[in-house]
Amino acid sequence: MSSPRTVTLEDVAREAGVSVSTASRTLNGKPAKVGAATQARVRAAAQALGYATNLAAQATALGRSKSIGLVVSTIPEDYQNPVTAGLFRSAGNRDLLVSTGISALTDVDKTRQVVRQLRGQRPSVIFVVGTEPADSPGMAELIEELNWAEREGSRVVLIGVRGTNLDSVVMDDHRAGGDMARALIEVGYTEFAVIAGTAPGLLSKHRVAGFREAVLEEGLPFTPDRVIWQEFTHDGGYRAVGELLRRRDGINAVFCVNDAMAIGAAVRMREAGLTIGADIALAGCDDIPALRDIDPPMSSMHLPWTEAAEEAFALAEYPESDGRTVVLEGHAVLRRSTPGLVSR
């Protein structure tokens, strides 16, 4: 049985009733001289035919390297492991090499230097992974550096950063917090504390706000002192539980805004003689694979960061003149760290 024929740019042009050059300009991020209606027709034809831009071939045609640039933070944010793995996998499927620069987005000068170095390699795409707000100090200068990369012919896609003129893939962090709260309430928990990270602040604030609003909507108590702010790390979670133990106030479930904090919290709870799941429930957010191997396996809000990588490539392969934001949603995964109180 013969394999299906690959859809070509010529097929898209024929379907849309335009020249190959017009289809190429529309799909390759240079549609300035193409009318809006024609652009829409070309993109509709590409989608209907299942056409995917070949970034490696396109790089050769445009005199760019068959590589992508990847900027990831030195901050130990758990979601970056599945994102990075997903980007490497997607790049490999497209016969593209990956050049990686390590820099926390909060260190704007260093990150701009990393981006300049990647620009010098003329990559097809530069992906930037982080969680900093677009209006945080120095981000405007970094975004301008990335805009220069686009003007030079590279595509740029942000993962985890929203609110810029560039394409981005983000999670609905507000909904993530709310969905975890509702899942815990459904199995009987009523007295909550939240361990939140001081940086990256916007991510934590959205997850905390979603959690708090869901709890209050159910008529359950949740006061500001129920949120303990610490570093967005394993050690931050450990220290937060120390503070929580000093003023536990009948709390029966703890939600941590990321999994590293949840693992640190679990260590401190065990040191205090608490049995997780029996004496107190504990849940994280991001659902890194290691949580399944902890005793007891830990509940978490699963966020599709691996899928985010493929979404980011899709944005790179189908560029438009205006920055787009793809928002992904997760789902709560309850394990033995939150067995519930309903049957007790």
UniProtKB/TrEMBL annotation:
**Keyword Nucleotide-binding attributed:** no
> Which keywords annotate this record?
DNA-binding, Transcription, Transcription regulation
* HTH lacI-type domain residues: 7-62
User: One Pfam family of this protein, by short name?
Assistant: Peripla_BP_3
Is Ribonucleoprotein given among the entry's keywords?
no
Q: Where are the transmembrane segments?
A: none
Give the matching InterPro entries: HTH_LacI (IPR000843), LacI/GalR-like_sensor (IPR046335), Lambda_DNA-bd_dom_sf (IPR010982), Peripla_BP_I (IPR028082)
GO terms for MF: DNA-binding transcription factor activity; transcription cis-regulatory region binding
Q: What is this protein called?
A: LacI family transcriptional regulator
Q: Which organism is it from?
A: Leifsonia shinshuensis
